[in-house]
Amino acid sequence: MPFDIRVVTTRDFLRASRTGELDLEASRKLLADIVRDCGQNVHHHVLIDWRQTNESPLTISDLFEVVADLEGAGLQPGHKVASLHRTEDELNLGRYFETFAVAHGFAFRSFTDPSTALDWLEE
Predict the structure, then answer these.
(1) What CATH number is associated with residue 57?
(2) Backbone region of residue 15 per phi and psi (left: phi > 0; alpha: psi in -120 to 50; beta: other values)
(3) pLDDT tens for the 123 residues of the chain, in order
């Protein structure tokens, strides 16, 4: 069955305040809007690429809130979300994101290898 993969980079949704700090509220809204667009088609999967960031701007509690936003944005059981990270250390934070998402019933996995992430999305 055909499907689409939407690649989302941090430039697509992370926003900073005038002081240069993460604007979590604006960033969460933008990511939820992207997911909402994908949520209208059950054959549309999402790859969130965090590799452009020097370090994760999100805390563990931020990730928990983002997962709640994904649920409210219409992410459904047929959707898959892959989270792509540069290093194993960053992958560990991605695993928290994964744990929260799976607990909400989402098909969500974290990766450091882009090919492996795409293979999982295509399964």
Answers:
(1) 3.50.80
(2) beta
(3) 556 888 888 888 888 888 988 888 898 888 888 877 776 665 678 888 988 876 666 787 888 888 888 777 777 777 888 999 888 888 888 888 888 888 888 889 999 999 999 999 988
